[in-house]
C-alpha cells in the first residue's frame, strides 16, 4: 500500500518483500512515499519496510529492516540480520553475522586475495629487477614499491646546453634514473590503483606530466597488477614517448621548475639514500627534482600557477592620486629585477646540473668497467675490470702489465 518510488537498475529477487507501512490517519492524505534509489540489490527472502533507501546498497537473503530505519548509500545488511531500532545508517555501514556486528566499509579488513596478489607481484618484481632497480618499504601507512628506471641511451647520445654557456654538448651513456614511488592501497589490484610519485632531476615538469598521464592510461587499460607494466614502460619506452632520440637539451627545463622539492641526487644508486658519507663534489651537490604525483583516480596534479597583471585596465576603478602611476612603475621595476635574478640563477643552476650529469656519467661508466671482464691490450688475457686500468686513450691494461 501507499506510494513506492523505485529508481533505476535495482535488482529485486524472488520472495522479497518491500512493504509500505501505513501512516497515521492524520497523514493519510499526504503520505511520505517509500523511496528507493538506484543500483540496489534485494536478495532472496529479504523484508524491507524502510521509508528511505539510498543508492548502491545490498540486502542479503532473509534480512529485515524496520519502518523507522533510514538506509544511506553503500550499506550492506548481512544475511539474516535485523535492523529494527529507529536510526539512520551512515554511508558504507556493514552489518554482518549472527550478532549483527557493525563496521564501516573503509574499516573492514583488506581482502586476503588482494594481499596475496600484492605479495606475489612484489616477489616477482624482486626477481625480475636488481636490488638497485627495485625495492620495497613497509610502514604503518602501507606498502611502498620504489623503482629506479635507468633508461638505456643510444650510442653517442648528446647532452646539450644553450649556446650562451661555455659548454654546448657532451656525449653520455648514463643519466640519473626516473624514480617511481608507488603506494599500494589495501584494495589494490582488484579495485584501486596505486598512488604514485614520479620524479627526475633532469626532466622538466611538462614532460613528467606526459609520463604520469601515460601511467594512468596504462592502469585504465589493464586494471590488474600494474607495477611491471609501469616499470617496463618507464625503462624502455619513456624516451620514445617524449621524443628524446639522439640528444637532450637541458635548456628545455622550464623556468617554473625552479623551487620544487629538493631530493638528493646520489650518483651511486647502490648506497642507501641519506646515509652517504662520501666527500666527493657530486655527492654533496643537491639538485631540485621535478616531482609529479599521480593517481589513476585523479586527473589533476595539484600544480597551479598564478599570473598577476598590475597594469591591467579597470574601467570601474575610481581615479586615484597621481602617485598611482609611480607606484605601478616601481612595482614593474622590482618585478623586472627579480625576473633577471631568477633567469641568472636558472642559467647557473642549469650549468651546475649539466656538469653534474657529466660527472654522473663518468661515475657510472667506471662502475660498469669494474663489473665487466676486460681484455688487456698487452697480454690479451681477460681480467676483471677492478684489476684493470683504462688509459685516457681508452686502451686497457691489467694491473700486472
UniProtKB/TrEMBL annotation:
Residues 267-303 are annotated as: Disordered. It comes from the Eukaryota. Keywords: Cytoplasm, Cytoskeleton. It is found in: Cytoplasm, Cytoskeleton. One of its GO terms (molecular function) is dynein complex binding. Part of the dynactin complex that activates the molecular motor dynein for ultra-processive transport along microtubules. This is Dynactin subunit 6. The lineage of its organism: Eukaryota, Metazoa, Ecdysozoa, Arthropoda, Hexapoda.
